[in-house]
Amino acid sequence: MSEQSDLEYLRDVAASGQYAPSLSGRFFIWWGGLAAPALLAHWSIITGTIAIPTQYVGLVWLAYGIIGLIGSSLLGRTLRNKPGTGAVNNRGEAAAWRGVTWMVAAYAIGAVVAAFLGRGHAILFDTIPLVAFAGYGMSFNVSAQLGGARWMQGMAILAWLFSGAGLLLVGTHGLYLFAAAAVGILAIVPGLVLLRGEPAAEAV
Hints:
Layout: H1 3-15, H2 25-46, H3 57-77, H4 88-116, H5 124-145, H6 151-165, H7 174-196
């Protein structure tokens, strides 16, 4: 690579706003704000706290998925006038979180299909939030490596710890209370921090 091309490359990196503030805060709050109540509803149904047949747990998560995807799509439109949407770190972060979303969706659908075909134990459903936490850790790690705030690396480690520690609660009702609290720490709190740090929208 020539000296001139080196300079052009560096100029392109700078122009892309590689270290622009993260724009994912609203998505953290949206998904966390849906997941925590869904986990609490799951716990309430399976413990009999709410007098609803346990088979309705599936409807809770179906609603979570549908509402979540629709809301996430609408939230994406609110970023159109935000500076930094084309930044390397924001593009990479968005790609990482999309990957985690579809990874967890594929795992959950696989658990449902396996249970329906009699090839999987119901305990598989308890592992879904733990797989999600592991994915959170990967996404936080990617964000940190692409120039995100230093605390994101700490969140990655915390997410992985939650994923492993949650295995101790698999098969118990307490898992869902644990998962709801973990979502608050891993999604809602970081979301509020990131949202406060967003740049103002550009005038149109």
